[in-house]
Automatic annotation (TrEMBL):
This is GIY-YIG nuclease family protein. SUPFAM superfamilies: GIY-YIG endonuclease (SSF82771). Pfam families: GIY-YIG. InterPro entries: GIY-YIG_endonuc, GIY-YIG_endonuc_sf. Residues 1-79 form the GIY-YIG domain. It comes from the Bacteria. The lineage of its organism: Bacteria, Pseudomonadati, Bacteroidota, Flavobacteriia, Flavobacteriales.
Length: 98
Protein backbone atom coordinates (compact mmCIF):
# COMPACT_ATOMS: atom_id res chain seq x y z
CA UNK A 1 0.00 0.00 0.00
CA UNK A 2 1.25 3.48 -0.85
CA UNK A 3 1.46 6.16 1.82
CA UNK A 4 2.17 9.82 2.30
CA UNK A 5 3.79 10.46 5.65
CA UNK A 6 4.79 13.45 7.74
CA UNK A 7 7.71 13.21 10.13
CA UNK A 8 8.65 15.66 12.88
CA UNK A 9 12.01 16.29 14.54
CA UNK A 10 11.93 17.87 18.00
CA UNK A 11 15.60 18.91 17.81
CA UNK A 12 15.19 20.66 14.45
CA UNK A 13 11.58 21.72 15.04
CA UNK A 14 10.90 20.79 11.42
CA UNK A 15 8.52 18.62 9.45
CA UNK A 16 9.43 16.33 6.60
CA UNK A 17 6.83 15.15 4.09
CA UNK A 18 7.42 12.05 1.99
CA UNK A 19 5.69 9.38 -0.06
CA UNK A 20 6.48 5.69 -0.24
CA UNK A 21 5.28 2.50 -1.79
CA UNK A 22 6.38 0.34 1.12
CA UNK A 23 6.49 0.11 4.92
CA UNK A 24 6.40 3.53 6.61
CA UNK A 25 8.08 2.14 9.75
CA UNK A 26 11.06 1.04 7.64
CA UNK A 27 11.20 4.46 5.96
CA UNK A 28 11.25 6.13 9.39
CA UNK A 29 14.11 3.88 10.48
CA UNK A 30 16.01 4.72 7.28
CA UNK A 31 15.54 8.46 7.83
CA UNK A 32 16.77 8.20 11.43
CA UNK A 33 19.86 6.18 10.48
CA UNK A 34 20.93 8.43 7.60
CA UNK A 35 20.38 5.77 4.95
CA UNK A 36 19.39 8.40 2.36
CA UNK A 37 22.80 10.08 2.46
CA UNK A 38 24.55 12.86 4.34
CA UNK A 39 23.09 15.55 2.09
CA UNK A 40 19.45 14.56 2.57
CA UNK A 41 17.12 16.85 4.52
CA UNK A 42 16.54 14.26 7.24
CA UNK A 43 20.24 13.48 7.76
CA UNK A 44 20.67 16.45 10.11
CA UNK A 45 18.64 14.77 12.87
CA UNK A 46 18.05 11.27 14.15
CA UNK A 47 14.93 11.87 16.23
CA UNK A 48 12.31 11.84 13.47
CA UNK A 49 8.90 10.65 14.65
CA UNK A 50 5.85 9.74 12.63
CA UNK A 51 3.50 12.71 12.94
CA UNK A 52 0.81 11.68 10.47
CA UNK A 53 0.28 9.00 7.84
CA UNK A 54 -2.16 8.87 4.92
CA UNK A 55 -3.11 5.62 3.24
CA UNK A 56 -3.30 6.31 -0.49
CA UNK A 57 -4.92 4.48 -3.37
CA UNK A 58 -1.63 4.08 -5.24
CA UNK A 59 1.86 5.60 -5.40
CA UNK A 60 0.89 8.34 -7.86
CA UNK A 61 -1.84 9.47 -5.46
CA UNK A 62 0.69 9.44 -2.59
CA UNK A 63 3.03 11.70 -4.58
CA UNK A 64 0.20 14.12 -5.50
CA UNK A 65 -0.78 14.32 -1.83
CA UNK A 66 2.86 14.87 -0.80
CA UNK A 67 3.22 17.74 -3.28
CA UNK A 68 -0.08 19.31 -2.19
CA UNK A 69 0.98 19.34 1.47
CA UNK A 70 4.43 20.68 0.59
CA UNK A 71 2.87 23.44 -1.52
CA UNK A 72 1.07 24.78 1.56
CA UNK A 73 4.48 25.64 3.10
CA UNK A 74 2.91 25.88 6.54
CA UNK A 75 3.59 24.17 9.86
CA UNK A 76 0.22 25.45 11.04
CA UNK A 77 -1.51 23.70 8.12
CA UNK A 78 0.27 20.45 8.98
CA UNK A 79 -0.84 20.82 12.61
CA UNK A 80 -4.40 21.36 11.41
CA UNK A 81 -4.21 18.16 9.36
CA UNK A 82 -3.65 16.27 12.61
CA UNK A 83 -6.29 18.23 14.50
CA UNK A 84 -9.15 18.18 11.95
CA UNK A 85 -10.15 14.85 10.35
CA UNK A 86 -12.38 16.70 7.86
CA UNK A 87 -9.33 18.56 6.52
CA UNK A 88 -7.54 15.25 5.97
CA UNK A 89 -10.58 13.89 4.12
CA UNK A 90 -10.78 17.05 1.98
CA UNK A 91 -7.13 16.96 0.90
CA UNK A 92 -7.38 13.25 0.07
CA UNK A 93 -10.36 13.96 -2.19
CA UNK A 94 -8.64 16.98 -3.79
CA UNK A 95 -5.65 14.87 -4.76
CA UNK A 96 -7.67 12.02 -6.25
CA UNK A 97 -8.27 9.73 -3.32
CA UNK A 98 -11.53 8.25 -2.15
Amino acid sequence: MANTYILYSKTRKKFYIGACNNDVAKRLENHNTGKYGANSFTATANDWELFLKFDCRDYSHAVRLERKIKSMKSSKYIGNLLKYPELRKKILLETGGS
